[in-house]
Amino acid sequence: MTNPLALIGRTVLTVLATIGRIAIFGFETISHMLRPPFYGREFLSALLNIGWLSLPVVGLTAVFTGGALALQIYAGGSRFNAEAVVPQIVAIGIVRELGPVMVGLMIAARVTSSIAAEIGTMKVTEQIDALITLSTHPMKYLAVPRVLAGVLVVPVLVAVGDIVGVFGGYAVATGTLGFNPAGYIRNTVDFLEPLDLISSLTKGAFFGFAATLMGCYYGMHSGRGAMGVGRATKSSVEGAAVLILAANFLLTGVFFSL
After folding, report:
1. Please, what's the b/e burial string for 195-229 (b: 16 or more CB within 10 A of its CB; e: otherwise)?
2. Averaged in consecutive runs of 10 residues, what is the pLDDT profile of the chain (258 residues)?
3. CB neighbours of residue 188 within 10 Å
4. Cα–Cα distance for residue pair 149/170, rounded to 1 Å
5. What pTM was estimated for this model as a whole?
6. Where are the domains of the chain?
7. In 43-70, which positions are buried (b, 16+ CB within 10 angstroms) versus exposed (e)?
8. Dist. CA 179–CA 4, nearest whole Å
9. How far apart are CA 29 and CA 203, in angstroms?
């Protein structure tokens, strides 16, 4: 009976220790953001990689998600003669939940894994040790530009995802389900509130912070060799996805349960 309990205890302690180390890493990253020097070239490169190069996958995912959501709501609403609510539910579903979460998970899949693999490879090839030899703080050079870029650019991606997702629902509703285009747009605009937009962009900032932070943390704590880098990449994506979904739950409670 003691072995299973000991296993559970070790697992809980390991999880808590990991959470503590990630929290300390996050606080250190924020503190380094407030102190010079700043590496503008690395920051611009991170903006390009996280923002511009993520637009295609974010746009494609959003448009198909919006279209599928419109079809699902129409099929469900038809059982209760409530097909007319498609514009309103698509808008609130995309802007409040699906848009931010979808973009956050896409960033976790594309950017977090890339950051963890890149920094992990730098550690394996002793490039991080070389930075220290050159009196360059690895946190400032590697983590700060990427985390700051994620916080700034992911809300923009969320806004793009919201717009494209709503457009996907609009295209399906007007092209397949027989909705009037002008009436669909009017119902969408009238139903959304400023708090919906604020919550969506705020979630984007938190998700960008979580995704880039996890990539940097696991990359810098990568094990040696190809296997260590692979494990760090896998763990970074898993951690980012869980953190994004947990943050989404907490932020939704803060914004919409008051």
Report:
1. ebeebbbbbbbbbbbbbbbbbbbbbbbbeeeeeeb
2. 76 88 92 88 92 92 92 84 84 91 93 93 89 88 94 95 93 88 88 90 95 94 87 93 94 82
3. 22
4. 31
5. 0.90
6. 50-253
7. beebbebbbeebeeebbebbbebbbebb
8. 58
9. 20
